[in-house]
Please model this.
Amino acid sequence: MTEKIAVDLLHDAKARLGESPVWDAEAGCVRWIDCIGKRLHRTNLATGAAASVDAGEAIHSIGVCNDGGLVAAMASGFGRLDPETGAFDPLSRPEEARPDYHFNDGKCGPDGRFWAGSMPRNYTGAGGRLYRLGPGGAVARMADGFTVPNGPGWSPDGTVFYIADSPAGAIFRYGFDLAGGASDGGVLGPRQVAVEPGLAPGWPDGMAVDAEGCLWSARWDGGCVVRFTPQGSVDRIVGMPVSRPTSCAFAGPGLDILVVTSGTAGMDEAARAAEPLAGGLFAFSPGVSSAPVGTFSG
Model:
């Protein structure tokens, strides 16, 4: 049963592909992106004030740095992104030799690294990879076998890593060794299925993990955000006013507001007219707060 709870529109940005929301506690705002539109957005939760800058190239995911600014996976690779100007300072280009691939979703982990996946531009095959960006631009290839990797997340105790592969319809889990036995950061165990395909409407896109260890999965073409238990069963389904929610994150001083991005990519004129709020940033109170959220220490 889909819950009908109050979902507020925070920013009517008309994003083509809104993605990667993160709470910037120091700035008191939600940072998020329009991947296709090459825009970096800022939305103040308290006042509703919004602003954006042009990044000059496609932004695929972002994270907050512990010394200020943002880390990002851009069309050209990993680097630092100035939140005020959109200027990009490259650090590494691990997919430079594979022009048919580009980065997708990413997130900062409890190990202080930025984790992001790559995907084939034609959405076929399983050649996508998971990379970890560390201090000084050091990059490690951590896992393979993805088509469209989305929604990285970690359990509250940092011992489990989650990632979805959207076309597969599944969310996977890996054991996560936070220390990794050295200063290199987290190391992954074998892959297992955490959430089976077909349990909820749409396709798993970006996600967030709450303090109870449950996964909040934005469902592309499902018009909802679904809460899954750590055992992989559906706990709640929250309906959204758009059919293509793309990602979600906990925000606010108490990390108890769930913000949800959305997009219009792939929608024809009639579909966009039927969903005038598509591409906006939304928020609702889920009744639970976030698991700890990492920042980039590189």
Notes: The first strand starts at residue 2 and ends at 3.
